C-alpha cells in the first residue's frame, strides 16, 4: 500500500554544513544530498566556520562554494562577534547581490562550537544595527555568566566528572531564560526583529509568548532533538546526545510541544551540527564537541507524530499533541520563508509516501559523519 501526499520542499533555517574549515565533518555537497533526501530544499547555514563568516570576503567565498550545489538553495547567516564584524555586515548589506544570499545575522550570547560568543556591548550594537538594516538577528541564547557559575560549581563538587549528563546541569534552563530576557530587552529598545535559535525551555517559551503579546517582533524555533530526546537518553547515547543548548527533562519537552500547539513556536529547524564519531568519542565525554546531525530525519520524525505515532522507542507520546501535516508546512516552510524573506516557492513539491514505514540507520543516511542520534527508530514517511 502507499499513500502519497504532496508538501512544499521544506526549509531548514538552521544548519551547520561545515564548509569551509571542517570538511572532514561535512561539506555543502554531502549535507545537501542528505537535505534533499529528507525533503529539505532550502537551508540557512551558520557562520561558525574556519574562517568564521564575519567578513564580506568569507561570505563571498561561501556563496561561491555553494554554486556547485544545484539541488539545495543554501543561504548564509553573517556572524557578529565584534565591532569590526558589524562594519563588515553593513558593507555586505549594501551589496544587492550578496544581500540576497543573507537571511540575517547571528550572535552567540555564550560560546558554543566555534567560540563565537560576543560581549554585551557588541551584542547591543548588533541589535541596534540589525534594526537599522531591517534584517533579522538570530540569537543563540545561553547566558555566559550563569553557564560559567554552573560549570565551576559542578566541576568543583565531587560528582563523576566523566558523566556526560552533567552537561545539562552545566548549561541550565535558567541560563537560556536569562539570555532570552536580555535579548528581548535589546529587541524592545531598538525595535529589532529577534529570532531565537533552538529554544529549549518552558521559561524561555513564556518570555517569547509575553514578548509576542506585547507586539514585539520576536520569533523562535525549536529543534527535533529537543522535541524527541531528553536527559533520559544520555544513558544510551552518551556523547551522541551532547549539544548546546543541552538535552532537557521530559517536562521541558512537553512545554515545547505545547508551544507548537499554541502558536508560540514559529519554526522547527534542525541545528544540523555534525561531528565525526572519533571526535564524539573523546577521552573525557564532557570535552566531546557539542552538536548532532538532523537535516535528513526531521521530516519523517515529524510525519510520524502528525500521523498519530511517536518515534522514540523507549518513551511515550504526550496525550495532547494536536500535530498535523499542515503544521509541518507551517513550521518548516511558511513561517521560515516569511521570517527570513527567502522567497522559496511552494510550487516546488516533494512527494511523500506516508504509508512507508522504515527504520533509521546512520549508515544509510547521507551525512558525511555517518551517524544519527535516532539509530534504529521506526518512522513513517519516505520522500519518493
Ligand atoms: O550543539 C551545538 N552545535 N550548538 C551550537 O551552538 C553549535 C553547534 C555546532 O556548530 O556544532
Ligand atoms: Zn546551531
Give an overview of the whole structure.
- With 384 residues, this protein is of the alpha/beta class.
- It has one domain (4-383): TIM Barrel, CATH 3.20.20.
- It contains 15 helices and twelve strands.
- It has a six-stranded parallel β-sheet. Strands 1-11-12 form a three-stranded antiparallel β-sheet. Strands 2-3-4 form a three-stranded parallel β-sheet.
- The two termini are 14 Å apart.
- The model has no long low-confidence stretch (mean pLDDT 96).
Short précis:
39% of the residues lie in helices and 15% in strands. The protein is built from 15 helices and 12 strands.
User: How many E strands?
Assistant: 12
Bound molecules: (4S)-2,6-dioxohexahydropyrimidine-4-carboxylic acid, zinc ion
As a percent range, the share of helical residues equals 25-40%
Beginning-to-end CA distance, first to last residue: 14 Å
Q: Runs with pLDDT <50, length 5+? A: none
CATH superfamily: Metal-dependent hydrolases
Instruction: Spell out the helices and strands N to C.
Output: EEHEHEEHHEHEHHHEHEHHHEHHHEE
**What is the makeup of the main sheet?**
6 strands, parallel
* Percent range for β-strand residues: 15-25%
Tally of individual domains: 1
Index terms:
384 residues, TIM Barrel, 15 helices, binds (4S)-2,6-dioxohexahydropyrimidine-4-carboxylic acid, binds zinc ion
Amino acid at each position: 500500500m502507499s499513500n502519497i501526499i504532496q508538501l512544499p520542499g521544506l526549509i531548514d533555517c538552521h544548519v551547520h554544513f561545515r564548509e569551509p574549515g571542517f570538511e572532514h565533518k561535512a561539506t555543502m555537497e554531502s549535507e545537501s544530498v542528505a537535505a534533499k533526501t529528507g525533503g529539505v530544499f532550502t537551508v540557512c547555514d551558520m557562520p561558525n566556520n574556519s574562517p568564521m563568516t564575519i567578513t564580506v570576503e568569507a561570505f563571498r567565498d561561501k556563496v561561491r562554494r555553494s554554486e556547485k550545489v544545484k539541488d539545495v538553495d543554501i543561504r548564509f547567516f553573517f556572524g557578529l562577534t565584534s565591532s569590526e564584524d558589524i562594519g563588515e555586515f553593513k558593507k555586505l548589506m549594501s551589496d544587492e547581490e550578496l544581500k540576497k544570499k543573507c537571511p540575517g545575522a547571528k550572535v552567540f550570547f555564550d560560546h558554543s562550537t566555534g567560540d563565537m560568543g560576543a560581549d554585551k556591548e557588541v551584542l547591543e550594537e548588533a541589535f541596534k544595527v540589525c534594526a537599522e538594516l531591517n534584517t533579522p538577528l538570530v540569537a543563540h541564547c545561553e547566558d555566559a555568566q550563569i553557564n560559567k557559575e554552573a560549570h565551576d560549581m559542578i566541576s568543583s563538587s565531587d560528582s563523576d566528572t566523566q558523566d556526560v549528563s552533567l552537561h545539562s546541569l552545566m548549561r541550565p534552563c535558567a541560563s537560556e531564560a536569562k539570555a532570552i530576557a536580555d535579548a528581548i530587552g535589546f529587541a524592545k529598545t531598538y525595535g529589532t526583529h529577534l529570532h531565537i535559535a533552538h529554544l529549549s525551555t518552558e521559561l524561555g517559551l513564556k518570555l517569547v509568548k509575553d514578548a509576542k503579546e506585547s507586539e514585539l517582533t520576536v520569533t523562535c524555533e525549536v529543534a527535533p532533538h529537543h522535541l524527541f530526546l531528553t536527559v533520559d537518553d544520555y544513558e544510551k547515547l552518551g556523547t551522541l546526545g551532547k549539544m548546546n543548548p543541552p538535552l532537557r527533562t521530559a517536562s521541558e519537552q512537553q512545554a515545547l510541544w505545547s508551544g507548537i500547539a499554541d502558536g508560540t513556536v514559529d519554526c522547527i529547524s534542525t541545528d544540523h551540527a555534525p561531528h565525526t564519531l572519533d571526535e564524539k568519542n573523546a577521552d573525557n565525554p564532557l570535552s566531546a564537541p557539542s552538536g548532532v546531525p538532523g537535516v535528513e530525519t526531521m521530516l519523517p520524525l515529524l510525519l510520524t507524530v502528525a500521523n498519530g505515532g511517536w518515534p522514540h522507542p523507549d518513551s511515550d507520546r504526550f496525550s495532547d499533541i494536536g500535530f498535523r501535516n499542515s503544521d509541518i508546512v507551517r513550521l518548516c516552510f511558511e513561517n521560515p520563508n516569511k521570517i527570513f524573506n527567502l522567497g522559496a516557492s511552494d510550487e516546488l513539491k516533494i512527494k511523500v509516501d506516508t504509508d512507508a514505514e522504515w527504520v533509521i540507520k546512520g549508515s544509510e543516511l547521507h551525512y558525511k559523519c555517518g551517524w544519527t542520534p535516532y539509530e534504529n527508530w521506526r518512522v513513517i514517511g519516505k520522500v519518493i
